[in-house]
Amino acid sequence: SIKMSEIKLSEAASTDDSAEETDWAAAKAFFDNLKTNKPRPVSLPKPRYAVTIAVSSRTLFNMVAERKIYEDEGLEKYVAYQQEHESEPLKPGAAFPFVKALMTVNARLRELYPDSEELFDIVLMTNNHAQVGVRLINSINHYDLTIERFCMTGGKSPIGYLKAYMTNLYLSKDAEKVTEAIEEGIAAATMFMPETEAETKLSDTQLRVAFDGDAVLFSDESEIIVKKHGLDSFFEHEKEFENKPLAQGPLKCFLEALGKLQRKFYEKNERMNCPIRTFLVTARSAASSGARVLKTLRSWGLEIDEALFLAGAPKGPLLQKIKPHIFFDDQMFHIEGAKELGTISAHVPYGIGQKYHKGKLIEQPEKKK
């Protein structure tokens, strides 16, 4: 049987080598003790080499019904319910297809580089009570998910742990935690399930990731000009500064990490058969403001596989064709449009766009003291 104490990693979320080694040893011991008939990878990648993806339990699994019990009836009833149902696997959540796609990439990397630790390392970050861990473990084993690390924070903020793991991307349902992560320089987004029940067949051989540009890959400097001075000023500004790279946005480092793994396939002459594909889906128009975006990516030494300039057209219909496992955007207007047409979307709460909805300034609630 698994001791839940083995799940809880070192409290001191420190990035020094000794703490990292201790955390890694604890995670590996826990992982090796998992009771499963499924074959497991021989070794765990250490965070310093891996592309670390942290997902919350509510993004990985659909826990809406369980969450309702927690909110309506309190923690004790919630824990009791989870224990009573721990042999029933949880249903897949918004991040589930994305995690499966990460595992597909890892399998291909293992074929080409059997000894490399440059892989996706998936961490389950949850503030759940330890007793709920059994149901989570059972669900992970049921779906044959290779999730090597658990971090059960017991209600504490995960930010210290995210930093200790050198997290490249954090996905949660909790917008406040996501905002906190972004403020600490960690790429993060709030995940949403598609609204349509229509089965969108996502690729099971290729990870497909779509990014908005401004306030996602890039800073919101250009968006500020649109909001404050209008489109004409924006076009003039972008023309004038075409050769000045934009500052980086909150998701730039994640695109960089994807690029690092893509290059491992290119080095083995697998460019045409690469299991990672990236898309830029921006409301900018190519002719008037597209060059600066492409030159910025070039200046960073980053490639994007497909760049789609929509000149203000809705993103939803195009995303239906792309079928990404995840689409990142800073504006809820675009997230809602994507969700309605069946795209798994992730909101990046960053930049001036948070103060607007459909182009109109919205009242800002006062920040909690």
UniProtKB/TrEMBL annotation:
A GO MF term: 5'-nucleotidase activity
Matching Pfam families, A to Z?
Answer: 5-nucleotidase (PF06189)
Cellular component terms, GO, for this chain's entry?
cytosol
What's a GO biological-process term for it?
adenosine metabolic process
What is the protein's given name? 5'-nucleotidase, cytosolic IB b
Source organism phylogeny: Eukaryota, Metazoa, Chordata, Craniata, Vertebrata
